[in-house]
Specification:
single chain; 182 residues; alpha+beta; 5 helices; elongated
């Protein structure tokens, strides 16, 4: 594996944001806390109405139960819209269509585009993850580098190379081929 040329698309940016968010512990905690807090508030309202009017308490409980189970779907849609809007921001519009030349060296990978070049040392990789559509490299600095499979001629060669780097440099390789945004 020597060199790959990639062109960034809006979908690539969105996929990267969604994948990163799905692996973010603070976001997971926030979603869980929101759901629990929401459920607790409705449970408290149900208890209050139980003493005042049993019919209203029953309706509140049914509405709360339905909402409690639909809340994760709402958050999934909410965050997808949020990240879609972010992927269309002015900062990201400048990146869409930009061609990246990625060169693989012994100890690092190098990216070049019209704005400049960067070196990412393998020792700074936290993990390499493979999904159905992409490879993601998460750096210890929380940056994610993405390789869309649709733009790679020989996916198996790149996969083997990444697995070799992971084995050699003791980097975690995550097979996340069933990943979907939830």
């Amino acid at each position: 594996m020597n060199e790959i040329i990639l062109t960034l698309t809006e979908k690539n940016i969105l996929d990267s944001l969604l994948y990163s968010a799905s692996k973010s512990d603070p976001l997971k905690k926030s979603r869980k806390t929101g759901r629990i807090l929401f459920g607790a508030i409705f449970l408290l309202l149900t208890l209050i109405f139980l003493f005042l009017n049993k019919f209203i308490a029953g309706v509140t409980f049914v509405v709360a139960s339905i909402t409690f189970f639909l809340f994760p779907q709402y958050l999934r849609i909410y965050y997808r819209k949020y990240f879609t809007k972010l992927s269309k921001s002015e900062e990201n519009k400048k990146l869409i269509g930009l061609e990246y030349r990625v060169t693989f060296k012994d100890n690092y990978l190098e990216t070049k585009n019209t704005y400049g070049e960067s070196k990412f040392f393998y020792s700074n990789f936290e993990y390499i993850s493979e999904t159905k559509e992409n490879f993601f490299i998460k750096l210890k600095t929380q940056i994610i580098i993405m390789f869309p499979k649709s733009q790679i001629e020989n996916i198996n060669e790149l996969k083997s190379y990444f697995q070799e780097v992971c084995s050699r440099d003791q980097i975690e390789y995550i097979n996340d081929e069933n990943w979907v945004w939830k």
